[in-house]
Amino acid sequence: MRILIGSMALVGLAACQTTVPDSGAGVGFKDYNQYQAEKAARDAALAGQAIPPATAISGESRGSSPEALAAEAEAALLRTQANSGATPVQTASNVPVPQTVSGAAGISSENDFDAVGAQRSIESDAALIAANKQQYKVVQPTALPQRSGSGGPNIVAYALNTSNAPGTQVYSRPGINKQARFQKNCAKYPSPDKAQEEFLSKGGPKSDRLGLDPDGDGFACSWDPRPFRKVRG
Fold it and tell me: Biased-composition ranges for Basic and acidic residues (predicted)?
């Protein structure tokens, strides 16, 4: 009786035990051979190659060494890189295929020593400099042109030949109502310079027939010689 009870207990334990999956059957939920075939098809599609036919993988390949797996991965990578440039660019029918620029025609090559060396030489540069020197023109200095004009009074020379300050009497100016005549006559000239020229041309500064210098300083209509004197220094 005891033997029977023990046998039944062992059978019950065996029924409750979880089945251990076969770890060598493959990766994840797929068979390893199927996984390798799908991986090879995906790599070939990315590389632009034809899909190789599926081949059976022997049981020995499942246990390959890490060195063999690394060599296989490196070979697949080299095949992908070798074929990556051979695949033509695919575009839509209305989109032009981009062209590869092989040369920059609009860019100067002055900074490219090889290009400049091929186009020019020391001898050619020397010949160019010599040709430019032949075109030089040396302009010799000439005498200043003579002052043109009517030959009337020169108020600049008059200012430099005098030394009295404006308002200081140097010449006698007898008469009556001199100030009123001064204001009336000076209003006829556009500037004191014009009045001074007219004053000198009519006998000034010794004589003041136009009534432009009532204070007798020799300067008509408040003309000031000091700016001209400052230029002389």
Answer: 194-212
What is the torsional sign of CA 53, 56, 60, 65?
positive
**Is residue 43 classed exposed, middle or buried when 0-12, 13-18 and 19+ CB atoms within 10 A define those classes?**
middle
Has residue 203 been placed in a domain? yes
Which residues span the domain enclosing 164? 155-232
The confidence score (pLDDT) of residue 41 equals 81
pLDDT band at 6 (very low <50, low <70, confident <90, very high): low
Domain membership flag for residue 181 = yes
Which residue is it, tokens 């060598």?
24
What is the tally of structural domains in the chain? 1
44: buried, middle or exposed (CB in 10 Å: 19+, 13-18, 0-12)? middle
**Is the residue at 126 inside a domain?**
no
Q: For the residues 156-172, what does the mean pLDDT come to?
A: 94
Structure confidence by residue, pLDDT tens digits, 43-63 = 877 776 555 555 555 545 455
pLDDT at position 90: 56
Burial class of residue 60 (count of CB atoms within 10 Å of its CB; 0-12, 13-18, 19+): exposed
